[in-house]
Amino acid sequence: MKLLMLFLVFMKIGFIGFGGGYGMLPLIENEVVGRGWLSKGEFWDLVAIASSTPGPIAVNVATFAGYRIAGVFGALLATSGAVIPAFFVILFIAMGMKEVLKTKEAAWVLTGMKSAIIGLLFIAAYSLYNVIHAQKIIVVALAVSSFVLVLFGMNPFLTILMFAALGFILGRIGVIR
User: Fold this and answer.
1) Are 115 and 83 found together in one domain?
2) What's the whole-model pTM score?
3) Helix/strand/coil (H, E, C) string of the chain?
4) Residues 31, 49: one domain?
């Protein structure tokens, strides 16, 4: 029963989770933490791991969360649930929806959806901020510095590696606990 519920929860997230993986994180967090499957800290640990592995973040989080909740079959079902809706949406678009998306009404809908995605990204960042076990001013300084580097053209992957190393160094000298 838990496996079926896991599949259905991630399928629901896949259907309503527009905006890519980071926009889906608050939805995933709400479901897996809200159901008591993972603690908030465990969830954000999985997000950190999923962010550093190749592939879409939502699929990686679904896989890792599914595995943590119900083992290998949980990983397979959570991943399938998260991916199947996107597959059918893409298939539907490929079958002729492309012309509909060119209308002004579709542009209005997409503008509304993009605005919601920005809000969801802020919620994800705020939620992550609340579970980080470090001085909040350091976290904010690192996040702002990272944002500025990427904004001015630094490769996001190199930024993550550089700040991982910086986090390690700050931890070793006792600035981050």
Assistant:
1) yes
2) 0.61
3) CHHHHHHHHHHHHHHHCCCHHHHHHHHHHHHHHHCCCCCHHHHHHHHHHHHCCCCCHHHHHHHHHHHHHHHHHHHHHHHHHHHHHHHHHHHHHHHHHHHHCCCHHHHHHHHHHHHHHHHHHHHHHHHHHHHCCCCHHHHHHHHHHHHHHHHCCCCHHHHHHHHHHHHHHHHHCCCCC
4) yes
